[in-house]
Structure formats: structure tokens, C-alpha cells
Amino acid sequence: MKKYVKDLKVKAVEFPHEWYVLLKLTDEEPLPESVPGQFVEVKVEGSPQTFLRRPISINYVDREKNELWLLIKKVGQGTHKLAELKVGDTLNVVFPLGNGFSPVQKQGEKVLLVGGGVGVAPLLDYGKYLKEQGAEPVFLLGARSQSDLLEQELFKAIAPVYVTTEDGSAGEKGFVTQHTLLNKEKFDRISVCGPKPMMVSVARYAKATNTPCEVSLENMMACGLGACLCCVEKTVKGNVCVCKEGPVFDINDLTWEI
Q1: What sign does the dihedral 52-55-60-62 (CA atoms) show?
Q2: Are strands 172-173 and 54-57 parallel, antiparallel or unpaired?
Q3: What's the whole-number mean pLDDT along residues 162-191?
Q4: pTM: predicted TM-score of the whole model, two decimal places
Q5: For the chain, what is the mean pLDDT?
């Protein structure tokens, strides 16, 4: 898939949570084609300590409004600087990068989409795609507390949403792998994005139930093109760059102890 370097215009800036910012970007031309699960590398202006671009998952693509959404967690100086962008500003973006989630395998297939923290971001676009292609997505979202749950209404507009929180303030108390949904329903396959311990737990459940499963890794990425080698992951086929060969991998290709 062809890669582009564009100065996208900031169309809207929203703050769904004190530690998150949602940037809605647009362009004068139609946005390039992308697939759910791909990511972008953004250039952070005005931050002397931020030398490298920052990788951000594509949260959602609205073709009718020609918008690309980026849901960003404010962690370091670079992401805090991105949260200072205003409507009308421009953001230099390299995209679309990496390989995304699997396409629909068959009509009516039931796909469980599991997300934790900011890892829920790429699942919104993927859920929309699955529904449009005749699949039946189901979301299982985990967070520390109710205030940490992101974009719930947007997820609910696409498919059923189940929730776990560590403190029990919303949904079922505990972790996603403890939700009663997993004991009640059988899924054709599972797609996961979030903290590694959570993904490993879901992968273990998938293996135990013989359910195909793919995970979106969040290794540190600097170039996004497989040149700098800082995002290398060990697989059964050898070491690979997550930014180029992933970020989405079949769990059977990884060397995780599950």
C-alpha cells in the first residue's frame, strides 16, 4: 500500500478524558485508503526534546467528512505537545503504515474485539468495517475505572459493548479475561489491542478455547518503515520489525509463553 507524507489540517480537538486528546484531521484531497489497525507517524513541532516522530493508531476514518481521527494518550513531552494543537493548525503525518487487522472471513462471523486503555482506539474503525462487511462484531473493553473508559457511545453505535473495570465502577469488576461473556458465548475469532499482560491473557484464553486470535503490538516505533530496528519482536520466523510486519500478528506467530 502506498505511503504518503501530508500536512493534514486539524479540524477538531476534543478532550474525552484529562489524559487523552482526540484529533480530527482532514485534507483538501480525499484521504488515502487505509485498513483498520494501521497507524501513522506524526511529526511533533515545537518540542526540542522530541527528535523522532510518534506512532499513533488510526482511531477512525470518516470518509463522508474526509476525517482521520487520532486518539492520543498524553504520556511524554511529545504527546503533551500534540494536545496543544488548535483547530486550523497542521500536523505532518506519514501514513498509512503497517499491516492491519484481518479482513472478514465469512458472512455472519462473530468477532470479539478486546481493548484495554488507549488500545481501544483501532478497534473503533475495525468494528465499523466488520459490521459493514457483514460480520458481527462484539466489543469487550477494559479499564481501571469508569472514568477511564473511552468512546463508549461510539462503540455502542456499532455493536454490543461489554465492560470490565478493575474497581467495579462500571460493568463487571475485574479484568477482561474474567468477564462472564467469555463463558457464555463462542466466537469465530478474536482481535486484541492493549497492554501486553492483557493481550497475553486473552491469547491464553484463545488458545485454550481453540479460537483464532490476533493481537496489535505496541512496541516502541521510531521510523515506522522498518529501518531503525527499535521495534523488533521475536517470532517463530525470526526477529521482525513490528512497524513493517505488524503491528497486527497472529498469536501463533509469536513466541509468547501461553
Answers
A1: positive
A2: unpaired
A3: 96
A4: 0.95
A5: 95
